[in-house]
Amino acid sequence: MSDGAAMGIGQIDYDGLIPNNVGLAEDQRVRKALETWHPGYIDWWKSMGPEGFQGSSVYLRTAVGVGAEGWAKFGFVRMPEYRWGILLAPKVEGRTIPFGAHKGQPAWQDVPGEYRAMLRRLLVIQGDTEPASVEQQRHLGATAPSLYDMRNLFQVNVEEGRHLWAMVYLLQKYFGRDGREEAEELLRRRSGDQDSPRMLGAFNERTPDWLSFFMFTFFTDRDGKMQLAALAQSGFDPLSRTCRFMLTEEAHHMFVGETGVARVIQRTAEAMNEAGIDDPYDIERIRRLGVIDLPTIQKKANLHFSLTLDLFGNEISTNAANAFNAGLKGRYREDKLTDDHQLTASTYPVLRLRDGAIIKDEVPALSALNMRLRDDYVEDTMLGIGRWNRVLERAGIDFRMTLPHVAFNRRIGEFSAVHTDTAGAVLSAEAWIRQQMAMLPSDDDNQFIASLMQPSWQPGRYAGWIAPPRHGIDNMPGDFEYVRIEN
Ligand SMILES: [Fe+2]
Ligand SMILES: [Fe+2]
Fold it and tell me: Angle at the Cα of 253 (from 248 to 257), degrees rounded to 5?
């Protein structure tokens, strides 16, 4: 650890088995629970974490502080030796519950008895997504398009591991025996398993190739960001502090996704220009250049966007209303909103299905909180799409990435009852079957992408379907060896 980083860390205990700023050294009961859980976690990491690279040294950042500056240090680490710590953002003195029925009362430092079950459920659902994505991505190292990308994948993976620790800490600290059992279950479920799957649909899907990985981190990690942002508002102060710190790490995951897709788009645009191809739909010719055609990239985006929307749950939700009323889960940037923060008298517009048609309905705002968060998510996503399109603009390519309609390809909520096209026009079953291949990746598309997934592990080299990044990680030079591969 550099001295600069050490100075900023103040109260962080970095000496024990589990780095932390929650006073584990004095908290025998929780320390013991975590130390008992630790070997199972390491077993899980070794068997379900990045396959084939457990012995490699990876240039990773490790959280060593929680201040805005200098919270991370970079260095070579073997992943099983990564220091997964428990880090909460600093306590805000005098913080009050920002919303719901208890608005204005002092924030809870302990679990309010009446909301115990609801809070536990929120922690478990959030916690379950963290190891799930590590499991989904475990085969990707073998086909990494560069050492830079491989390192980014592993960085995301170890941080998802740390996010699991964050939730397990809260469970073990505040939920006693129930919490310990839930912590064990979090290590037992497996993404995509028939008998014991992860809890949410998108986290049981496959991540078979690197374009899927970039789309996943762009779209699905962004759902994580929205959920964490809503939980960071929680009146249960330890959860708020935990999520606030997790959000600092989450930003990197979205960077990996957004710039990853942007680099794929850039490479395709460059190859098209070099070959003098104007028509983005001249797919066969473009594919022969060894790059991914833009319509296929769009189809991947359609798929990952629609899978991710399902994570926001039902349009009308009493669970969401209850969690808000209870002061446990707020809205995105609740603290920046200027209404009454109780929403008992307001409404919110929601798209719904009525007699087979999509209509806008004003519903009580409390029951529409899932949709409000989803709308904030879509808005946030659009900013990234805009940046992808600037790559195409600069390259002079006549194609723009878009988001499909929210009703497209849904399995949860009102729209799971219908098929629509990407513009939201309702389709008959036959029309859906006919048009599906133009809107979602086909077997043929997936096979083509898979054919490009050849490892490129020379320092400074990149696979032909992706452009190099503009900057190195931690300002490292272009030929830096981010991963020293050893099995
Ligand atoms: Fe996470
Ligand atoms: Fe993440």
Answer: 145
Model confidence at 302, pLDDT cuts 50, 70, 90, reads: very high
Q: Measure the N-to-C terminal CA separation of the chain; round to a whole number of Å.
A: 26
Maximum C-alpha span of the chain = 68
In angstroms, the Cα distances linking 43 to 84, 188, 262, 380 are 14, 11, 36, 37
Residue 220 · residue 311 · CB < 8 Å: yes
CA of 50 to the centre of ligand 2 (A): 15
Contacts of 105 (CB under 8 A, 6+ apart): 96, 97, 235
Write out the two tokens for 103. Answer: 């608005």
Over 90: is that where the pLDDT of 125 sits?
Answer: yes
5 has pLDDT over 60: no
d(CA 461, CA 331): 43
Can you give the pLDDT at residue 61? Answer: 93
Q: Per residue in 126-183, pLDDT tens? A: 999 999 999 999 999 999 999 999 999 999 999 999 999 999 999 999 999 999 999 9
Q: How many domains does the chain have?
A: 1
Residue 40 has pLDDT above 80, yes or no: yes
Q: Residue 469: how many CB atoms within 10 A of its CB?
A: 17
Ligand at shortest distance from the CA of 220: 2
In a domain, 7, yes or no: no
Q: 7-16, 78-87, 162-171, 218-227: which has the minimum mean pLDDT?
A: 7-16
| CATH code assigned at 389 | 1.10.620.20
Q: What is the pLDDT of residue 66?
A: 77
Residue 385 lies in a domain: yes
How many whole angstroms from 312 Cα to the centroid of ligand 1? Answer: 16
pLDDT tens digits, 323-347: 999 999 999 999 999 999 999 999 9
Least Cα distance to 50 among 250, 189, 213 occurs for: 213
pLDDT of the residue at 265: 98
Identify the domain containing residue 480 by its residue range: 95-484
CA 258 to ligand 1 centroid distance, Å:
16
Is residue 30 assigned to a domain? no
Q: How far is the CA of 49 from the centre of ligand 2 (A)?
A: 15
Predicted local confidence at residue 17, as pLDDT: 84
Q: How far is the CA of 443 from the centre of ligand 1 (A)?
A: 30
pTM (two decimals)? 0.96
Q: Which two tokens stand for residue 318?
A: 């009493």
Residue 50: what are its φ and ψ, rounded to 5°?
A: -50, 120
Classify residue 20: in a domain, yes or no. no
CA distance 321 to 319: 5
Ligand showing the shortest atom-to-Cα distance for residue 130? 1
For residue 219, report the distance from its CA to the centre of ligand 2, in Å. Answer: 10
- Ligand 2 (single-atom ion) residues, CB below 5 Å: 221, 224, 253
- Which amino acid, one-letter code, is at 260? G
**Ligand 2 geometric centre to CA of 226 (Å):** 11
